[in-house]
Amino acid sequence: MKIVIAGAGEVGSHLAKLLSKEEQDVILVDADAEKLAAIDANYNLMTNCGSPTSFTVLSEAGVAQCDLFIAVTPFETTNVIACSIAKNLGAKKTVARIDNYEFMEQRNSAFFNALGVNNLIYPEYLAAKEILTSLERTWVRTWFDIHDGELTVVGVKIRDNAPLCGMQLKDLAASGHNFHVAAIRRRNETIIPRGDDRIIHNDILYFTTTRDHIENIREMCGKRQVNIRKVLVMGGSRIAVRLAAIAGDRYKFKIIDIDRQRCVKLCERCPDAKIVNGDARDIDTLDEEGIDDMDAFIALTDRSETNILASLTAKEHGVKKTIAEVEDLQFISPAENLNIGTIVNKKLLASSTIFQMLLATDSSSSKFLALADADVAEIEVRAGSKITRGPVRSLRLSRDVTIAGLIRDGRGMLVTGQTVIEPGDHVVVFCLSGTIHKIERLFG
Q1: For residues 372 and 354, is the Cβ–Cβ distance under 8 A?
Q2: Sequence-distant (≥ 6) Cβ neighbours of residue 258 within 8 angstroms
Q3: CB contact set of 87 (below 8 Å; sequence gap of 6+)
Q4: Global pTM value
């Protein structure tokens, strides 16, 4: 697949690196030659230096033949114009990163389609939705539903008190459980497990199950659900504003920000939240604002280190649920090994959404999750594909790929070695980064 990405910032660079590892034909366009040089020297992709809104530059990048054009510069106007030009030049599908939620409203979709913008990505909105899910389901690190909950993928951190701790997966399979351990995040790597792998303390396990057996997973992991009402937010970012808007009156938000002018704007944009001008890094400020009485703490400043340390402090004060925005990918693995609860990263969330488009899945019923070094995708099985030629145990899948579950005739089911996958099935696949091209060959 030929993909042109406009913008070599954080999202664009991460996405370009991710796609180049998947052996896609990627061209990265940006006006900053230094940014391009650093990426060009280390990754298998092409670069083109120039303005993303130049007809000449985009023509030279080959947008007329591209399957997907992605505009993720820091400026939404530039992104929309770039998509419009790319579509006019012949790009099959276009995606623009935006910063205005009003653009996402259904009543405006026809307007953007007319401009040549097929899809809009708002990373802060994706992050706010992820945080809201974490507040609703406090015992998990990751949660997403497939086909209205027919299958659910759940990520849970295992403690010493978990009944699962110390068990080998083959013993777990013999117990007749109703879930599949699709991946294990251990220290700084993700493992696609086999029967002889043992579950140990501080592993993050990724389960696939059906809606009737979620409680079984919670009990096996030794977790309990906590009801959240009072939430303290550190940092009045766009994510905080969007979170307060989509949460409605489900939670009582208190937002602390060190910038007085931003606090004035927050009072207008978040009328139902209490806004406090102060430094949430200061323990005295947290004490004054009642950190000990809070059910949840969310750190949303623009510094990953600050968010991690603040979440640790909140945990020490007995806050039941903590969530930290960690945008520096290098900090995600260390943060996962700390007791800071859920980690949110806009780049990974945006990449997940765009990868979903790349795999040509139905965005209304499917979900794609990009972990720090692993991917999860739902893919529809086509007639005649290799994966339908026999039971799963005969497919000889590589060790970095596992089939976690499938949807058949609208109903979710787990997969065993005897399962025969049929055309029309929607299959949930876990794989290590850089191996999605192997999956595409199986399903193509």
Answers
A1: no
A2: 277, 278, 279, 280
A3: 69, 94, 115, 116, 117, 118
A4: 0.84
CA distance 173 to 48: 51
Q: Tell me the pLDDT tens digit for each residue of 377-409.
A: 778 888 888 888 889 888 888 788 888 899 999
Q: How far apart are CA 72 and CA 95, in angstroms?
A: 8
* 4-15 pLDDT per residue, tens: 999 998 888 888
